[in-house]
Amino acid sequence: MKESGKPGLKNWLFLLFYFLLVVYALVYEPNNLIVTHESFDFLGGTNDTPNPVRIAFISDIHIGLQRNGWLDAVVDRVNGQEPDIVLIGGDVIESDASELERLAPLARLNATYGTFAVVGNHDYGLWGCGATNTTADKVVAKLESLGIDVLRNEHRIIGGNSGFALIGVDDEWSCYDDYRAAAAGVPDAMPKVILAHNQDSVAQDAASGPGLILAGHTHCGLVRVPFITQAVLGPGFGSVLGGRARLDDDTEAYVTCGITGGGIRFLTSPEISVIDIK
Ligand SMILES: [Fe+2]
User: Fold this and answer.
1) 120 alpha carbon – ligand 1 mean position (Å)
2) Against a cut of 0.90, is the pTM above it?
């Protein structure tokens, strides 16, 4: 006897499941900005800074993709964490300098030691070696006009000589990254917080002394499928796609999923990363 062409209950349930999965990944999770908490113990307890030092770390703003009011809400949530220092991991724009005016809410970021940033590949307006500085220079000028200290292969000492070095590395995909120049003059034994858009641009060089690398760029792979996401995207985007990783005896890395909304995300919620170091 010929079977009816109507789908059975089981098929309807499968369809419903996949529909909900798609709604979750395209609508809910990309817009579900969460606050995550991590702590790292490497400062040694002899510094002049608070114990712990609270870092609010945001990355991958991609302001051209965001709706009006979104960044204001992000800034309110960052300030609500009462950070000692705010770090921005690059890719503040999506594609060109016409987006810069929309970064104005960043001027309200409030932290004891201030706000620091590095630039990412999108801030150069072109992906890959050979990008000129034109767009990135405008991004840097805008961020600095908002009171943000942009570190392009340079460092600052936070909390005096018994504090820690904050080292900012320029963008790797644009071939402007130079960790050694950024860290020049920082004593090996001094604890280091290394801010880079792409974690891989410093992983090889950061082995001297206690340190923590903070990076973004990967959006945690956007769709997290165990083993597969890392295998497919890792070679192009980063040896660490998201979360914590120990690189050697005294160096760890944390790669944030970034805060950008829109697009697709599955098990990679956009995040404000609150990181306590002591
Ligand atoms: Fe990026």
Assistant:
1) 5
2) yes
Phi/psi of residue 76, each to 5°?
Answer: -60, -45
Strand order of the sheet with strand 251-255? Answer: 154-158, 164-169, 192-196, 211-215, 251-255, 243-248
* Through-space distance between the first and last CA atoms of the chain, rounded to whole angstroms: 74
CA of 21 to the centre of ligand 1 (A): 26
Which residues make up the environment of ion ligand 1, defined by Cβ < 5 Å? 91, 120-121, 217
pLDDT at 152: 97
Q: pLDDT for 203-218, tens place per residue?
A: 767 667 789 999 999 9
Spans of the chain below 50 pLDDT: none
Domains of the chain: 33-277 (3.60.21)
- How many whole angstroms separate alpha carbon 117 and alpha carbon 143? 8
Edge-to-edge strand ranges of the sheet holding 85-88: 34-40, 271-277, 53-58, 85-88, 115-117, 148-150
Ligand 1 mean position to 161 CA, how many Å? 33
Distance from Cα 143 to the centre of ligand 1, integer Å: 17
Q: What is the pLDDT of residues 261-276, one digit of tens each?
A: 778 888 899 999 999 9
How many angstroms separate the CA atoms of 152 and 167, rounded?
Answer: 9
Q: Count of CB atoms within 10 A of residue 144's CB? A: 12
